[in-house]
Automatic annotation (TrEMBL):
Ranges annotated as spanning the membrane: 12-31
The protein's name in its UniProt record: ATP synthase F0 subunit 8
Entry keyword set: Membrane, Mitochondrion, Transmembrane, Transmembrane helix
The species this protein was found in: Aacanthocnema dobsoni
Superkingdom per UniProt: Eukaryota
Length: 50
């Protein structure tokens, strides 16, 4: 089995990481817009975690 150079794997890893991050950010902001009226409830949840 020929050894592959690590560069393509690094690029693939970075690309998947970036896409995952942008996707989660998009979902987060979409939910924020949808539940803007429930922001107090969200803040209470966040404060309870800490």
């Amino acid at each position: 089995m020929p050894q592959m150079s690590p560069l393509p794997w690094t690029l693939m890893f970075m690309w998947s990481l970036t896409s995952l991050l942008s996707l989660s950010c998009y979902i987060y902001f979409t939910l924020n817009k949808s539940y803007a009226k429930n922001s107090n409830y969200m803040m209470n949840l966040f404060n309870m975690k800490w």
